Inverse folding.
């Protein structure tokens, strides 16, 4: 009996994992070899997808990337000399890209089947919930506070403080809302976690519900992630059948519902998300009142990103001290960084805070996939700054990046080579903002469109004095958007624009020293 | 144009199903679109009535979100990712190729109703850029040749009578 593992992750499937699984089972049948094909989550080593793993006495042997055409040859090799096959990778867990990571959130990635409760429990699942259930609410909140966990959606607000606020708010009905509207381009950790380990998120939400006194949770997932929606819906049903979720009040008084977004980027902003959950246009609310006090349907609501909530079972199972031993300064724990764009080895790298951007991009990423010179990396999604290689030695730490005028955000890193024109990217950031602005505040609604016009005039002009004028205007506009917008959408659109202008003035047709001011 | 009254039973079923759902408008619109293919104009008064909203509020929500359509879709919907990661791997060249091969703009639909082009900003396939979604299926590590083959596949199939 041959035991094989092929990911069912949507991106592994987008590069042929289903075809691989089909070819494996057809070839096995032709050869009359008995096989078991397990569809697991992805390891996140995406340049190797579709990654085939074969169980052996030493551990799982990897082969990748395997196309359906390679299958016949692979079967020959498996019976003869597997290690000599050109796609052989050796033991998967010894691949340096993976073995050097510190996987807490993604400990089960590529190992378990996403919808197998047994797999989940056999790999530490529900240990956090079991411990939390024995504690007082205040002790759970204290553990989250002590762990140093900060909101992983981008704002990095201390999670425990939110928990305390919601817990202390008097109300009959409270809610836990998971912001799974991972709209930030260049990020895919939430998608991987929801598709690959949905019970971890569910466990985190149950613990949150118990701790703050909420009986109902919503997971708001973007519509661009249909596989995640499917996995979560199935996982919620399974968890309910197994008694982890309950509305009857006999067991755990917490139930969950998955809601699907409808293609609006702004609904990743927490108050717009709450409006959307209420069935309205995704228009940003003014704060205060904080959602922790007046959130969904006007009730106290704990709103967290997927990774924040999924960190909680680990903190409960292993202790706050275990978690805070990872990281540096006030950035504690691990962050799953997502390497994407023009990079040779794109994938998920979960490490404690504190490694440098260079280790990530050049070490793990192996530089550009085109082989051309590295130009910049955009860190933190479409509203993150473009960081030039001269700043790549900055440690990935919330405060260190803030000091650069950049941000870590949700941990997405998009790499670009020297062919990517930064003036075009600055214009794109403004265009994106114009398309996705909810329209409530003026700096964002009008500023984005005026900004595109300024960039267009700047690029089109050949008069240096005029260009300098337009560059000043653009700086001024960035300033207005950054400090005058109601939420981070308008406020942070200035980051990619101002950083492009500062570090790559030549792309705008500006002389370097003057624009660097 | 189809007779929208034919869709009313579907719409009524959806509204009945969500009678107790708090904040039901998005789930209702998704379900109607899944059942009918789009949100028929004839559905708006019923939705508004069921949720005790004005028709303007319902239309406001339909038009706010990119996903909701108010007309029948093309047979194939092709969404090429145009976000940063895919741009850094040549998405704009692919977009130009699409426009040329189909003779369509970014939001266009071909005259025979075969294909609609829609930009999308991130499919979460960034580690395997560039990517697109064709009728709900993601294809990553696109090359001009693969894109061309996918588009030809959409155009060549026999049209239903």
């Amino acid at each position: 009996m041959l035991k094989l593992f092929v990911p069912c992750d949507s991106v592994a499937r987008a590069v042929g994992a289903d075809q691989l699984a089909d070819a494996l089972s057809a070839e096995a049948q032709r050869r009359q070899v008995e096989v078991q094909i397990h569809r697991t989550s992805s390891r996140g080593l995406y340049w190797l997808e579709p990654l085939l793993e074969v169980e052996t006495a030493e551990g799982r042997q990897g082969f990748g990337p395997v196309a359906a055409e390679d299958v016949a040859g692979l079967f020959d090799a498996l019976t003869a000399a597997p290690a000599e096959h050109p796609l052989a990778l050796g033991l998967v867990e010894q691949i340096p890209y993976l073995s050097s990571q510190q996987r807490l959130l993604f400990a089960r990635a590529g190992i378990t089947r996403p919808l197998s409760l047994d797999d989940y429990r056999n790999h530490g699942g529900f240990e956090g919930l079991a411990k939390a259930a024995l504690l007082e609410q205040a002790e759970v909140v204290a553990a989250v506070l002590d762990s140093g966990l900060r909101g992983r959606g981008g704002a990095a607000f201390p999670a425990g403080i939110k928990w305390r606020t919601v817990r202390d708010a008097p109300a009959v009905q409270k809610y836990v809302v998971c912001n799974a509207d991972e709209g930030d381009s260049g990020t895919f950790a939430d998608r991987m976690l929801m598709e690959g380990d949905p019970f971890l998120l569910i466990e985190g939400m149950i613990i949150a519900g118990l701790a703050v006194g909420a009986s109902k949770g919503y997971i708001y997932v973007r519509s661009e992630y249909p596989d995640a929606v499917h996995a979560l819906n199935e996982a919620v049903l399974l968890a309910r059948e197994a008694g982890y979720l309950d509305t009857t009040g006999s067991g755990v008084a917490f139930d969950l519902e998955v809601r699907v977004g409808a293609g609006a980027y702004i609904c990743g902003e927490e108050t717009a998300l709450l409006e959307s959950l209420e069935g309205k246009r995704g228009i940003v609310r003014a704060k205060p009142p904080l959602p922790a006090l007046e959130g969904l349907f006007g009730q106290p609501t704990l709103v967290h990103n997927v990774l924040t909530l999924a960190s909680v079972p680990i903190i409960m199972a292993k202790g706050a001290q275990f978690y805070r031993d990872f990281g540096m300064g006030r950035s504690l724990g691990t962050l799953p960084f997502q390497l994407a764009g023009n990079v040779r080895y794109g994938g998920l790298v979960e490490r404690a805070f504190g490694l440098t951007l260079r280790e990530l991009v050049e070490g793990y990423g192996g530089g550009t996939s085109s082989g051309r010179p590295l130009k910049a990396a955009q860190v933190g999604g479409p509203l993150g700054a473009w960081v030039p290689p001269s700043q790549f030695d900055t440690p990935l730490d919330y405060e260190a990046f803030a000091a650069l005028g950049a941000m870590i955000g949700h941990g997405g890193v998009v790499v670009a080579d020297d062919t990517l024109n930064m003036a075009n990217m600055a214009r794109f950031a403004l265009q994106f903002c114009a398309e996705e602005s909810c329209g409530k505040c003026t700096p964002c609604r009008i500023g984005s469109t005026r900004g595109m016009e300024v960039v267009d005039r700047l690029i089109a002009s050949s008069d240096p004095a005029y260009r300098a004028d337009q560059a000043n205007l653009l700086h001024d506009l960035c300033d207005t958007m950054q400090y005058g917008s109601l939420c981070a959408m308008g406020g942070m659109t200035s980051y990619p624009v101002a950083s492009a202008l500062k570090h790559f003035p030549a792309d705008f047709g500006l002389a370097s020293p003057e624009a660097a001011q | 144009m189809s007779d929208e009254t034919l869709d009313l039973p579907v719409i009524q079923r959806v509204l009945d199903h969500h009678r107790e759902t708090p904040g039901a408008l998005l789930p209702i619109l998704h379900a109607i679109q899944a059942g009918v293919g789009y949100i028929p104009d004839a559905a708006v008064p019923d939705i508004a009535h069921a949720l005790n909203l004005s028709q303007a509020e319902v239309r406001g929500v339909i038009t706010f979100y990119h996903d909701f359509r108010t007309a029948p879709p093309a047979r194939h919907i092709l969404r090429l990712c145009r976000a940063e990661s895919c741009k850094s791997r040549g998405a704009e060249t692919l977009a130009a190729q699409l426009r040329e091969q189909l003779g369509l703009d970014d939001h266009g639909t071909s005259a025979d109703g075969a294909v609609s082009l829609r930009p999308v900003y991130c499919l979460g396939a960034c580690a395997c850029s560039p990517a697109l979604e064709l009728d709900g299926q993601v294809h990553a590590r696109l090359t001009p040749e693969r894109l061309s083959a996918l588009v030809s596949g959409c155009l060549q199939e026999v049209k239903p009578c």
Q: What stands out?
A: DSSP finds 21 helices and 16 strands in chain A. The two ends of chain A are 67 Å apart (CA to CA). The mean pLDDT of chain A is 95.
